[in-house]
Amino acid sequence: PVSVGMSLDIASIDTISEINMDYTATIFLRQRWTDERLCFDGNKSLSLDGRLVEMLWVPDTFIVDSKKSFLHDITVENRLIRIYPNGTVLYALRITTTVACSMDLTKYPMDKQKCTLQLESCKT
Question: What is the pTM of this model?
Fold first, then answer.
């Protein structure tokens, strides 16, 4: 198994829809793991073009209850791949996602809602 570290920053919560029972948020997702096959001599990291991600193993992370999501691609795909000499890989991307959130509006306007943002990985 590969141990993957992860961090997530919420850049913005763009909309909350009581009618559709969902919310839309833009997030920055960063994942870090070590792949010994990528070790190299040197003391500086390499930043790679995001298009090279197709040539690397990356975690199969997905957003639970996502109705739709997209990666930002203006002017280029908003993905970063940085490889360190010890084979550590930093993979970062910017995602906008619309996530389902079951809301209980019976006490509106004195209600409180709790919407989650869960990430998971497919396990085989």
Answer: 0.85
